[in-house]
Amino acid sequence: MNALARDRKAWIVVGMMFFFMLINFADKAVIGITAVNIMDELKLTNTEFGGLNSAFFFLFSLSAVLVGFLVNHVKTKWVLAIAALIWAITQLPMIGTVSFSVLLVSRVVLGAGEGPAYPVALHAVYKWFENGRRTVPTSLVSIGAAVGTGITAPVVTWIVVHYSWHAAFGALALVGFIWVAVWLVVGEEGPLSEPVAEVGGAGLSHVPYWRLLTCRSAIGVLVAGFSAYWALTLAVVWLPAYLNKGAGFSQTDVAWILTLPSLMQIFFSPSMGALSQWLLARGVSSRNARGLLGGACVALAGTAMILMPLAAGGPLQIALVTVAFASGSVIYTLGPALIGEISPVRQRGAMLGISNAFYTLAGSLAPVIMGRLVDVGADPRAGFGTGFQFAGLLIVAGGLAAMLLIDPKADLSRFAATRSPLFPAKAGT
Q1: Is residue 377 part of a domain?
Q2: I need a labelling partner for 280 at 20 to 30 A (CA). Which of 33, 62, 226, 253 fits?
Q3: CA 379 – CA 357 distance, rounded (Å)
Q4: For residue range 200-238, what is the model confidence (pLDDT) as tens digits?
Q5: Residue 404 and residue 410: Cα distance in Å, rounded?
Q6: How far is Cα of residue 395 from the mean position of the Cα atoms in its chain?
Q7: 190 near 24, Cβ under 8 Å?
Q8: Which pTM value belongs to this model?
Q9: What is d(CA 108, CA 369) in angstroms, rounded to the nearest whole number?
Q10: For the chain, give me the number of helices (H) and strands (E)?
Q11: Does residue 367 form part of some domain?
């Protein structure tokens, strides 16, 4: 394959991973967009609805880890196709009459299918791009999540209003089946999957996983990613209900407000990714170009979330909502690149899976904690306010930790200095 054909294919894969993540997050977001309808039809309390969404993550993290190890040995093309097929199939039971138990089982199975999505998508993309060129492709894949969460909200809301919430799930199933069919035709493994082209991990062929996971850069990325995922989960599960029941916006207004964080992410994540890549190309350390920048964006999101319930409504509150649920997403552009930078290529898929599994532990906690706080609050607005301020403090702490801890150069130096003779560095390194 010549260079031009390779680049064309690489960007086709990036485009497919963009739509892969769009569908992934549309499948997540539909439960929040239809929250009021589902709670009314099934007679659920806020705590019960929060527990339902926490159950989505019951197998989410476990599947992310297991499949992360699997893609070290199996082609990502087939793993991605099977995952998307599972997503589509789990939407089908929602089309007809639904009981709480059917909804619960469907969400658990969907969570198991979606757990590995982002790390496997990035692993597929990283087979086409060297370390220095990964930030922009990563940002484009990550904004698929933003489009899936927010930009599709008016479309899903229109289906709910004019048809039913059941029809919204059916529409997402159809889109999923179409993606699988296209991917089976155009999907292909990148050339950097070959050992001769390994990058990352300073040329080391193996580093014990416990050393990778306990190095300061990994801890910084994991903590920041966990914190940002807390916000992401609240955006998907509870933000529509808060804007409707807590802030008093109509369902149609909520649909359009939800597009604003996504629009900001679509601009902000690639911009920060491009800035990071530009800084790296000019000799700025990865600690600053990726770690400091990513951590600062997470801390900014937390600060906006703390202030959000204090705003009196109107433009200021909407602006704070936008920043709170958009700026932290930058860590999902820069964090995976940092994990890829410190991980030997044969361990990269597993490390991306493990890191994603850790982030998403927040998803099992955030929905039920928020639901409990809303139920015990004096009214929905007060309960939501307490929940968002607690989340904001957690997110600020995660961002500051990332800024202080992340230092890939120092970690790679320690790995090289302490490598086992059983796993020597490759020739020429």
Answers
A1: yes
A2: 226
A3: 34
A4: 555 567 888 888 999 999 999 999 999 999 998 898 888
A5: 13
A6: 15
A7: no
A8: 0.73
A9: 18
A10: 23, 0
A11: yes
